[in-house]
Amino acid sequence: MKCPFCNNLESKVVDSRPTDDGHVIRRRRECIGCGERFTTYEKIEEIPMIIVKKNGMRESYNRMKVLNGIIRACEKRPVTMEQMEALIDRIEMTLHSSMEKEIQSEWVGELVMSGLKDLDEVAYVRFASVYRQFKDINTFITELTKLLNEKTPLK
């Protein structure tokens, strides 16, 4: 770390502690050359995620867009905002851990549906009906049948 006082490249860390939100580390450093102290902040560099839509268009990942879809699916259901936020946190963790810079929108949709299936089945069906663009009652019944078959083990 370059000293802001004498431009020496050698310093030692005197104190290190996380900030209040825990996402940044505050470090007090002492320059080996001049002995002056200065503060640096260290944070994780986040890779921006680009979502590739079905039509090939690309746009930046937008957490609020995903949250709004989940909120609409969970409307008038016994799902708390904390549960919805936790679902998005899990989805984002999965996306970030993939280390992909460009993510297919279909994958995000499947992650949302998978999370909603565990959270609330009615919300899952609501989201799936919009996401999978059910054209008629038969496709809707097919999806419900798959859901019922997963719940009841075969004999």
TrEMBL record:
Name under which the protein is recorded: Transcriptional repressor NrdR
**Protein source organism:** Fusibacter tunisiensis
Names of required cofactors:
Zn(2+)
Task: Outline what the protein does.
Answer: Negatively regulates transcription of bacterial ribonucleotide reductase nrd genes and operons by binding to NrdR-boxes.
- One family from Pfam that matches here is Zn_ribbon_NrdR
- Identify the PROSITE patterns for this entry: ATP_CONE (PS51161)
The encoding gene is: nrdR
Q: Taking every annotated instance into account, which residue ranges of this chain make up the domain ATP-cone?
A: 49-139
Against InterPro entries, the record matches this protein to: ATP-cone_dom (IPR005144), NrdR-like_N (IPR055173), RNR_NrdR-like (IPR003796)
Q: Where are the zinc fingers (unnamed)?
A: 3-34
Q: How is the cofactor bound?
A: Binds 1 zinc ion.
What family classification does the UniProt entry report for this protein? Belongs to the NrdR family.
The top of its lineage is: Bacteria, Bacillati, Bacillota, Clostridia, Eubacteriales
Query: What UniProt keywords apply to this chain's record, in alphabetical order?
Result: ATP-binding, DNA-binding, Metal-binding, Nucleotide-binding, Repressor, Transcription, Transcription regulation, Zinc, Zinc-finger
